[in-house]
């Protein structure tokens, strides 16, 4: 399908602390002798990779041009306008206008690392973990002016087993499949289908620092799935102990059948080599990794609390990208 394509302009960047997906797609282009250019926002151009410094430094190593900008404009895209150039978005923060899309007819695509139309929007795997959903479909779709609504060109279904319980583990499995997906797409191994709007769900951006606060009225399972959603590679979910903010990673359900009462929620009932054990209204949670920015003496009988005003702010819909 894309035999006449001589250049790919990637718009976007990598996932946080990873070497992919965009850098992996760049490698495919280099090996296929397709010229490529990357346009990225300034924040994502400084995202750390796992082994190659930050994103900008990694592209320099690969000898690929990077344009780091504040805003995407038609004037910028005009520099690449010809019938042998394909636009490919990966973690792109901008919504391309109809005029931008029309500059490259039927040659503007997006890689969405989750199922469409069921998992539209941002932070898809955080939302998936919160919901306890164990599958997704990596998706390449045509870009339209409306977010994640263009025709699907290629999908690859993935199922996550029970051992995959945080973002880092999810992304590790995904990264093993997305290079093959992109390679197949370039070869024209596609199956074009329209999205079923009756099966669509859209979820907004998430910020670990703003949204990642635990509500201790939740059950143990709800708290653990929430903690998983903000775990590695990000900082972890948050709450307060004696007025000091703390963050959790590697959280498990324990004492699932124990009859704790609502007033016991948030109380530390055991500390051992296994972790810090906390009561919820339905079962307990074991926190294996806990960090705070101030020294704090953790002991049994203390209570984790997230103030109501913090929980209210965490429900705000005006947030930056997940951090």
Overview of the molecule:
The chain has nine helices and 15 strands. It has helices at residues 22-31, 55-61, 74-78, 98-102, 124-131, 167-186, 208-211, 220-229, 308-314, and strands spanning 7-12, 35-41, 65-69, 85-90, 108-112, 120-121, 135-142, 152-159, 202-203, 237-241, 244-254, 268-272, 275-279, 284-292, 304-305. Strands 3-2-1-4-5-7-8 form a seven-stranded mixed sheet, with helices on one face. Strands 12-13-14-11-10-15 form a six-stranded antiparallel sheet. Helix 1 links the parallel strand 1 (7-12) and strand 2. The radius of gyration is 22 Å and the shape is elongated.
Short description:
By secondary structure, this protein is α/β, with parallel strands linked by helices.
Instruction: Characterize the largest beta sheet: strand count, sense, and whether it forms a barrel.
Output: 7 strands, mixed
Extended strand count: 15
| H and E string | EHEHEHEHEEHEEHEHHEEEEEEH
Mean pLDDT: 93
Count of helical stretches: 9
Sheet with most strands: strand arrangement: 3-2-1-4-5-7-8
Shape: elongated
Helix content: 10-25%
The amount of beta strand, in percent, is: 25-35%
Low-confidence stretches: 319-323
Distance between the termini: 37 Å
Gyration radius, in Å: 22 Å
Tell me the structural class.
alpha/beta
């Amino acid at each position: 399908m894309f035999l006449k394509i001589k250049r790919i302009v990637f718009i976007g960047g990598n996932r946080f602390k990873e070497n992919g997906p965009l850098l992996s797609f760049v490698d495919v282009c280099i090996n296929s002798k397709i010229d490529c250019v990357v346009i990225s926002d300034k924040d994502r151009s400084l995202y750390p990779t796992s082994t190659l410094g930050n994103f900008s430094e990694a592209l320099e190593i690969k000898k690929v041009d990077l344009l780091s900008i504040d805003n995407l404009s038609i004037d910028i895209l005009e520099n690449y306008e010809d019938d042998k150039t394909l636009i490919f978005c990966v973690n792109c923060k901008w919504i391309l206008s109809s005029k931008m899309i029309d500059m490259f007819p039927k040659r503007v695509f997006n890689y969405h690392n989750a199922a469409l139309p069921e998992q539209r929007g941002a932070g898809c795997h955080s939302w998936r973990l919160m919901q306890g959903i164990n599958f997704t479909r990596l998706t390449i779709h045509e870009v339209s002016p409306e977010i994640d609504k263009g025709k699907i060109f290629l999908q690859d279904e993935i199922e996550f087993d029970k051992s995959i319980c945080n973002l880092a583990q999810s992304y590790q499995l995904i990264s093993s499949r997305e290079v093959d997906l992109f390679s197949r797409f370039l070869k024209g191994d596609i199956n074009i289908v329209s999205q079923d709007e009756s099966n669509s769900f859209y979820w907004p951006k998430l910020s670990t620092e703003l949204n990642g606060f635990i509500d201790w009225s939740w059950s143990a399972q709800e708290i653990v799935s929430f903690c998983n959603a903000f775990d590695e590679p990000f900082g972890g979910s948050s709450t307060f102990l004696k007025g000091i903010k703390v963050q959790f990673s590697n959280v498990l359900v324990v004492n699932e059948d124990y009859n704790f009462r609502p007033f016991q929620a948030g109380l530390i009932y055991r500390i051992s080599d296994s972790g810090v054990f906390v009561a919820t209204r339905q079962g307990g949670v074991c926190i294996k990794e806990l960090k705070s920015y101030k020294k704090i003496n953790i002991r049994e009988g203390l209570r984790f609390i997230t103030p109501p005003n913090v929980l209210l702010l965490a429900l705000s819909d005006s947030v930056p990208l997940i951090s």
